[in-house]
């Protein structure tokens, strides 16, 4: 007679837990990918008049020995100029230069000249707000 008895409905939570972990991993990976390129670990200079800029499309990182990095690729100033000129519609691009506090002024100007030579007019310099 047990065969004809009604069975209680059960909610299986193990598959639901698997899906929740999958979603958690998915969102963590997407969030990590959305973080802008960190580039070379550098110590940004302080500025009392630093103002927030809109999120740049490209971040050029300069190390203290004037090494350049764009999208985790090391390059020279000439390579940077060619890469920037190859971008679609460079006049609407915004570029931020994140340089170490010990970057030479000559290296900074070379990067800014490469940006201007490629037709980019929106160039910002990353700085840390003075405390």
Number of helices: 3
Q: Describe the strand arrangement of the main beta sheet, using strand numbers.
A: 4-3-2-5-6
Shape: elongated
As a whole number of angstroms, the C-alpha radius of gyration is 25 Å
CATH topology value of the largest domain: Nucleotidyltransferase, domain 5
Assigned CATH architecture of the largest domain: 2-Layer Sandwich
* Estimated structural class: alpha/beta
Please render the helix and strand layout as text.
Blueprint lengths: L13 H21 L11 E2 L10 E5 L5 E3 L2 E3 L1 H9 L8 E6 L5 H13 L4 E4 L2 E2 L2
Parallel strand pairs: 1-7, 2-5, 5-6
Antiparallel strand pairs: 2-3, 3-4
Helix pairs in contact: 2-3
What does this structure look like?
- With 131 residues, the protein is of the alpha/beta class.
- A hairpin with a 2-residue loop joins strand 3 and strand 4.
- The radius of gyration is 25 Å and the shape is elongated.
- The model has no long low-confidence stretch (mean pLDDT 80).
- The chain has two domains: 33 residues, no CATH class; 84 residues, Nucleotidyltransferase, domain 5.
- The protein is built from three helices and seven strands, in the order αββββαβαββ.
- The chain starts with 13 loop residues before the first helix and ends with a strand.
- The strands form two sheets. A five-stranded mixed β-sheet has the order 4-3-2-5-6. It has a two-stranded parallel ribbon with strand order 1-7.
- The relative contact order is 0.18.
- Helix 2 packs parallel to helix 3.
């Amino acid at each position: 007679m047990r065969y004809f008895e009604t069975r209680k409905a059960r909610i299986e939570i193990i598959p639901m837990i698997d899906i929740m972990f999958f979603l958690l991993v998915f969102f963590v990976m997407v969030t990590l990918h959305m973080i802008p390129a960190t580039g070379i670990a550098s110590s940004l200079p302080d500025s009392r008049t630093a103002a927030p800029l809109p999120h740049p499309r490209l971040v050029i990182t300069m190390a203290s020995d004037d090494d350049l990095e764009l999208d985790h690729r090391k390059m020279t100033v000439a390579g940077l100029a060619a890469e920037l000129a190859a971008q679609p519609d460079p006049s609407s691009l915004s570029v931020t230069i994140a340089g170490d506090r010990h970057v030479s002024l000559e290296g900074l100007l070379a990067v800014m000249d490469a940006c201007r030579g490629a037709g980019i007019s929106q160039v910002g310099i990353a700085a840390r707000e003075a405390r």
